[in-house]
Amino acid sequence: MAKIDDSVKKKVPELRFPGFTDDWEERKAKEMIKTHHFRSYLAEPNDVGNYEVIQQGDKPIAGYANGEPFEYFYDVTLFGDHTVSLFKPTKPFFIATDGVKIISADEFDGRYFYVTLERYKPASQGYKRHFTILKNEDIWFTTNKDEQVKIGTFFKQLDETIALHQRKLDLLKEQKKGYLQKMFPKNGAKVPELRFAGFADDWEERKLGELGKVTTGKAFSSKDFDEQGEYLVITNKDISNSSRSQNVITDRINISDKDIVEKYNLSGENILVTMDGVNLGKTAMYSNEDALLAQRVGRIQSTQLEFIYQITSSSSFLMAMRTLSVGNAIKHISLTQISNYSTLVPSNKNEQQKIGSFFKQLDDTIALHQRKLDLLKEQKKGFLQKMFVTDIKVLSFLCLI
Q: Could you read off the pLDDT of 352-362 as tens digits, one per residue?
């Protein structure tokens, strides 16, 4: 029998602030949670008002309202019964529906209660009532109010840092949208509103097939796929969202024919276009000499790939491909439809290169901020695991395996 860690025996978290040594307690959430009844639902809030109207989901601020809000905001957390969303109000508020539960616990500092719910909230089970599930959760907590305040403050500061990085990322994405609108001609125009110095000629209408080489991959046999295969293989499911790279590629393949490897190898710079399925029209920049391209994924190669990428990753291209798609159960597009996609481009390749380089730098900056944000979120997950007691029964079972 493997030895159970001392931190488990003592009923304390793995990571703790100095000066606190008491055991934590375990209770059913329903023994502690209080529900506050507030009937002033505002399903149709206004654009302006003194108080926020809170709804379930990823976008909690539904709008604003005036009147008599729920005043006691510090101690409570708002729990989305259908969505398992959590919201910590910082001022008086209204709620949009009765699906937003206003809850607190007398033995918990308000911010510590919110963090505890983040740690122990149930996984989503679709559109069902999750509050009943939450109330039956076993929750470990410290009764020391000073420790509660320290933990709550720590996660509040971490959340503020995450929110700051999210705002920076959102601002960069909005800036890119603005530049795309101003650096590409609007409908009916021949030149963009914003342009690099030294360029004055009208833009010309060209097809993607004239700007680069458009091909597709090989229809590999199912027997070629092998978890230990020498090559990665890129299929439609690997291009799930238009981006400069796709991080999750799980399929591998064994191919002994070197001519096939040379023909479908994805070395160099490539734009990949999904040609059927739910991700139809999504694109990605991809380069990997150890990866091969499968059938039904379009491939664009060009000396001006950075410029072309801004065209193919646009909502206009996506909508055009989906409008052209045919099929019943599974929609699909052809290489001809990709090649014939028409757009305005500068006649001067130097201008194309400058625009492509500008947006590549902007995309790289956005990707950097996204990585920082993702890292912070992962760090928070780690702290939630280590700064709360892990279930003793589960750990004891794992130690016996």
A: 999 999 999 99
- Residue 286: C-alpha distances to residues 216, 227, 244, 340 (Å): 14, 21, 7, 22
H-helix or E-strand containing 165? helix 145-183
Burial class (CB in 10 A: 0-12, 13-18, 19+), 38: middle
Retrieve residue 42's tokens: 């505002």
Place of tokens 């929750």: 139
Please answer whether residues 60 and 87 qualify as being in contact, where contact means their C-beta atoms are separated by less than 8 angstroms: yes
- Cα dist. 67→41, 52, 199, 221 in Å? 12, 11, 57, 66
* Structure letter (DSSP) for residue 355: H
Predicted structure pTM score: 0.84
* First and final C-alpha spacing in the chain: 9
Could you give the CA distance from residue 182 to residue 185 in angstroms, rounded to a whole number? 7
Selection from 66, 70, 67, 63 nearest residue 35 by Cα: 70
β-bridge pairing 297-301 and 265-274? antiparallel
Residue matched to tokens 């092998």: 226
286 neighbors 266 (Cβ within 8 angstroms): yes
Tell me the pLDDT of the chain averaged across its residues. Answer: 90
